[in-house]
Amino acid sequence: MNIKQKNVLITGAAKRIGAACARLLHSEGSNVFLHYRSSQADALELCKELNQQRPDSAKAMQADLLKISELESVAEAASAAWDGIDVLVNNASAFYPAVVAKVTEQHWDDILGINLKAPFFLAKLLSRALTDNKGCIVNIIDIHAEHGLSGYPVYSMSKAGLAAMTRILAKELGPAVRVNGIAPGAIIWPEHELSEQAKQEILQRIMLKRLGEPLDIAKAVLFLVKDAGYITGQIITVDGGRTLSC
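The line above is the sequence of 3-oxoacyl-(Acyl-carrier-protein) reductase; the predicted structure tokens follow.
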């Protein structure tokens, strides 16, 4: 896919991996529609930065992806922004701990809603536009979809579901729409605190002995969008060799 002047919707695009994807795809000539939930200042600053580089090439919109009505609004606004959508990057994610004994229904609904329900319904809502444009979907998954993370059972299950969804949507939406995923390992430390000991234990289990960077994931997204015309239903692991020690 020549992604110059293609239209890309990225969820959770204000910071971290989402923002890195937005900057890199934009630098290749794409228009980017930035979804955010609570990080308004970051999203608007990123939108301004991109529009200064190329006028009317970025738009931002706040939405709670747990609400179907707001999902629909994001899909409609993104489709209308530049007359269609070519790429959907499902990046928004909820991540926080709760051991099995302390999981509540609210916890379950929040995690599954953001990590699995929202990506599915966005894919559904945009399937016609993506089919018409022979577009693609990239889902940001996690290495813990396959190797569950202790203390995060619901999160791990939600990402396992997203991996399964990637494969079935590749069947359901093909041949017009390619659907792939990326499974990051330790890219940047989570926003909740980790002890120095915990960080060192994680680093020791990574073959490259360092964290990755958001740009590492963005480059994998760019590859799947731009240069992977014969790849669908696949999940690329970008983890510095972390899963070799599982």
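Note on the example: The domain at 7-245 is CATH 3.40.50.720 (Rossmann fold). The chain has a mean pLDDT of 95.
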